[in-house]
Amino acid sequence: MKILLSDTSVLLNLLAGECLQELSRSLDVQFVVCSAVYSETQRLRDPSTGEMVPVDLAAFVTAGLLQVVEISSEEEAAGYLAEATVVDDGEAMSIALAAARHLDLAIDDRRATNHVKRKFPELKLWTTPELLEAWTTRDAIEGDRVTSVLRLIEARARFSPASKYPRCAWGSAKLGR
Q1: 43-45 and 52-54 as β-strands: parallel, antiparallel, unpaired?
Q2: Count of domains observed in the chain
Q3: Is 47 helix (H, G, I), strand (E, B) or coil?
C-alpha cells in the first residue's frame, strides 16, 4: 500500500465528494495528513443548506482511513520552518514531510504546487482531479456517480479547478460543460 500525504484542500475535496474510502481502496493508498492539516480540516458546507458544518476526522482515523503524522526529526523541522516562509502552515508542514520522507503529495494550491515543482522536482504530486480520474478510470466508474462526486465537491468544498488546472478538462467533460 502506497502512502499519500494530503494537504488540506485535497482532503476537504475528497471528504466533500464522499469518496475517500472508495478512492483509497481502489488506488491502494493510505491517506496521511500532518497535524497542521488535521487542525485546518474543520468544516464543509452542508449540501442542501450551504451552511458550514463540522468535519469529524476522528472517525476517519479510528476507521484507519486516515493517519496523522507529526514532525519527528530535525530535518523535517528545518524544512517546515523554511517552507512556512513561502506557503501556508498546512502546506508547509505537508511539503516538508513529503520531501523528507520521499512521499507522494496531494495538493491543489497552484502557487504551492509550482513552488514544490521548482524546489522538489523529485516529488510526485497529485491534484484532486488527478486522483478522481485515476480512481474512476481504474474502477470504471461512470455517469451518475462521477457527476455526483464532482457536484458534491463543488457544493461542499467550493472547489472547481481553473481552466489551466491539471485534468480540468476531464472534470468539465464529466459535468457536461
Answers
A1: antiparallel
A2: 1
A3: coil
Collect all residues with Cβ–Cβ distance below 8 Å to 37 and sequence separation of at least 6: 6, 7, 8, 11, 90, 93, 94
| Lookup result for grid cell 478510470 | 137
Q: Per the structure block, which three cell numbers stand in for 104?
A: 507522494
Identify the CATH number of the domain in which residue 36 sits: 3.40.50.1010
pLDDT in tens, 133-152: 999 999 988 778 888 999 99
Output DSSP code: residue 134.
Answer: H
Q: Report pTM.
A: 0.91
C-alpha cell at 123: 516529488
Which of helix, strand or coil describes residue 5? strand
What does each C-alpha distance from 176 to 67, 146, 155, 169, 170 come to in angstroms? 35, 11, 16, 10, 10
CA distance 4 to 33: 8
Q: Please answer whether residues 94 and 6 qualify as being in contact, where contact means their C-beta atoms are separated by less than 8 angstroms.
A: yes
Q: Tell me, yes or no, whether 136 lies in a domain.
A: no
